[in-house]
């Protein structure tokens, strides 16, 4: 049976209101964040970049390594079905830290 994604898109929820949710994603070398699903458009701001492996927990040969850079900002559109990220593991030599800001709804939507 396939691993089901969690709703936890960071390591700690920092703030939430009716319009946004802010997570910190902080991983020391060797630490991981479980497979998860994004249900809202979001952007992330990298404070301290690291080398992160996105690995399918059900098939260890299915992975992609991504180098994140300090001060990188990336926006992601998420469709109605959501966007699943596989397990993230810091395979680098220093702590990776970024902030994930989920946009729950637009300011002008009722």
Please give a structural write-up.
The protein is mostly beta strands and 110 residues long. The protein has a single domain, classed as Jelly Rolls, CATH 2.60.120. Helix content is 0%, strand content 54%. It contains no helices and 11 strands. It has strands at 12-16, 20-27, 32-33, 36-38, 42-48, 51-56, 59-67, 73-76, 83-85, 87-90, 96-103. The strands form 3 sheets. Strands 1-2-11-5-8 form a 5-stranded antiparallel beta sheet, with no helix packed on it. The protein is globular and about 35 Å long. The termini are far apart.
CATH class identity: Mainly Beta
Can you tell me the overall shape? globular
Helix content: under 10%
Query: Which structural category do the helix and sheet elements fall into?
Result: mainly beta
Largest sheet: 5 strands, antiparallel
Strand content: over 45%
- Count of DSSP helices? 0
**Which fold does the CATH topology refer to?**
Jelly Rolls
Question: Average pLDDT across residues?
Answer: 93
Per CATH, the superfamily is Jelly Rolls
Pick out the low-confidence regions.
none
Number of domains: 1
Calculate Rg over CA atoms: 14 Å
N-to-C CA distance: 39 Å
CATH architecture: Sandwich
Strand arrangement, largest sheet? Answer: 1-2-11-5-8
Strand segment count:
11
Order of helices and strands: EEEEEEEEEEE
How would you describe this structure in keywords?
single chain; 110 residues; mainly beta; Jelly Rolls; 4-stranded antiparallel beta sheet
Fold topology:
Blueprint: E1 12-16, E2 20-27, E3 32-33, E4 36-38, E5 42-48, E6 51-56, E7 59-67, E8 73-76, E9 83-85, E10 87-90, E11 96-103
Antiparallel strand pairs: 1-2, 2-11, 3-10, 4-9, 5-8, 5-11, 6-7, 6-10
